């Protein structure tokens, strides 16, 4: 910084110290704006990240099901693809549901570096106990693999996922269903499939209430026992895949669907509507907190504007001794930036304190006390500082332009 710059900086400091009340008010305005920006954005961004993490981890990144997005081509059309053949009134062949060649799908999915694939079979049964009946969608799984592709094991209130292997006919259901049927861990309940097959199942675990992706009408059991109960031996109708990089789910799902024809849905496709809502939520959040910072900059505008009016005589003298209009505008912009810098530093402390207070609060969620998810990253601090300094520079520059209208001759003669 040259001598002129140093002199301008010293004059800016003297101006601010001379009007301490206005300076304190302007600094506090920026500090409160920055502090609440940090607190609000920490909650909003933190809750959003927590939501997305739960969304990604709650279920496999890719689910390959035995659904087809379009009807398979008929053999006649395949055989005479290039011929003038038109088939009508043919009888379609009914095929058993399930993934054909699911072992090959598993091998291809596992060929992706870091990928884990788990087969499963879903089907409907009816639970009967003491004259009461409840429909239940059972999911036959391999516990070790399923625990690695989802967070099911973390959402158990009672029992462990591996208990399915240690108990014959083991079944894990939700707490709400257990309450409705009056079941407790260790109790036995009869289950009847649509084929008429009936088994006695033992409750070995309970899911917590209110878990995303888990309804109270779903239950888990061993894959081979589910195949036996549903009368579908060696059949699998769902493959869950977890990738090392969740962002690659869309790409890998497209590859699997093109190769095998079965519907492969990524977590992004399953949650497209929720993700679009998050974008709207972010726009609203940054609009509101941006308005807070803009209002805080009004204090700087008022302080600099009053300084320009009060220092008209000083401005005239400075211009008379050789300071240019740009130097004088720079002087008042420096004043605004000094106010904003002090406000940002104080606002960072205020925001840190607010986040610490919010982080110490605990709320009961689904029966468990949990802390507010907060984003304490430097990104929000830098956004608050950048937005505040930019707003302060504009707020200071607007009144600083008035220095160009000051005529030193009129001022020094006492005409104005």
From TrEMBL:
Residues 23-257 form the MacB-like periplasmic core domain. The chain crosses the membrane at residues 23-45, 283-304, 340-361, 381-400. InterPro entries: ABC3_permease_C, Lipoprotein-release_system, MacB_PCD. GO terms for cellular component: plasma membrane protein complex. It comes from the Bacteria. Keywords: Cell membrane, Membrane, Transmembrane, Transmembrane helix. The keyword Plastid does not apply. Pfam families: FtsX, MacB_PCD. Residues 288-408 form the ABC3 transporter permease C-terminal domain. One of its GO terms (biological process) is lipoprotein localization to outer membrane. It is found in: Cell membrane. Its main location: membrane. It is a multi-pass membrane protein. Belongs to the ABC-4 integral membrane protein family. LolC/E subfamily. This is ABC transporter permease.
């Amino acid at each position: 910084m040259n001598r002129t710059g140093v002199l301008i900086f010293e004059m800016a400091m003297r101006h601010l110290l001379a009007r301490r009340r206005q300076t304190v008010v302007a600094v506090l305005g920026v500090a409160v704006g920055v502090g609440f920006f940090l607190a609000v954005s920490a909650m909003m961004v933190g809750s959003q990240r927590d939501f997305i993490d739960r969304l990604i981890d709650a279920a496999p990144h890719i689910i390959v099901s035995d659904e087809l997005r379009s009807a398979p081509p008929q053999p006649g059309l395949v055989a005479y693809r290039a011929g003038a053949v038109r088939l009508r009134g043919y009888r379609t062949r009914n095929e058993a549901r399930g993934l054909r060649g699911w072992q090959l799908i598993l091998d291809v999915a596992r060929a992706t570096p870091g990928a884990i694939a788990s087969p499963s079979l879903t089907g409907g049964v009816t639970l009967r106990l003491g004259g009461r009946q409840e429909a239940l969608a059972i999911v036959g799984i391999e516990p070790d693999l399923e625990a690695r592709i989802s967070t099911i094991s973390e959402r158990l209130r009672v029992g462990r996922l591996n208990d399915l292997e240690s108990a014959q006919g083991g079944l894990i259901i939700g707490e709400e269903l257990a309450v409705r049927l009056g079941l407790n861990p260790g109790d036995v309940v009869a289950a009847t499939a649509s084929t008429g097959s009936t088994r006695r199942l033992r409750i070995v675990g309970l899911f917590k209430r209110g878990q995303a992706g888990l309804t109270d009408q779903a239950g888990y059991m061993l894959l081979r026992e589910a195949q036996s109960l549903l009368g579908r031996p060696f059949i699998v109708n769902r493959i869950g895949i977890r990738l090392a990089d969740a962002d690659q789910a869309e790409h890998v799902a497209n590859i699997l669907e093109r190769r095998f024809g079965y519907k492969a849905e990524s977590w992004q496709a399953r949650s497209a509507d929720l993700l679009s809502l998050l974008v709207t939520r972010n726009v609203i959040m940054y609009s509101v907190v941006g308005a807070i910072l803009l209002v805080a900059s009004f204090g700087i505008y008022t302080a600099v504007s009053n300084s320009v009016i009060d220092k008209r005589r000083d401005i005239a003298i400075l211009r008379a001794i050789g300071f240019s209009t740009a130097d004088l505008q720079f002087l008042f912009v420096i004043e605004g930036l000094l106010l904003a810098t002090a406000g940002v530093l104080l606002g960072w402390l205020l925001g840190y304190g607010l986040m610490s207070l919010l982080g110490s609060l605990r709320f009961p969620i689904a029966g468990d006390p949990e802390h507010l998810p907060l984003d304490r990253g430097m990104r929000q601090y830098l956004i608050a500082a950048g937005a505040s300094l930019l707003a302060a520079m504009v707020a200071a520059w607007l009144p600083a332009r008035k220095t160009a209208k000051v005529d030193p001759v009129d001022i020094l003669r006492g005409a104005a």
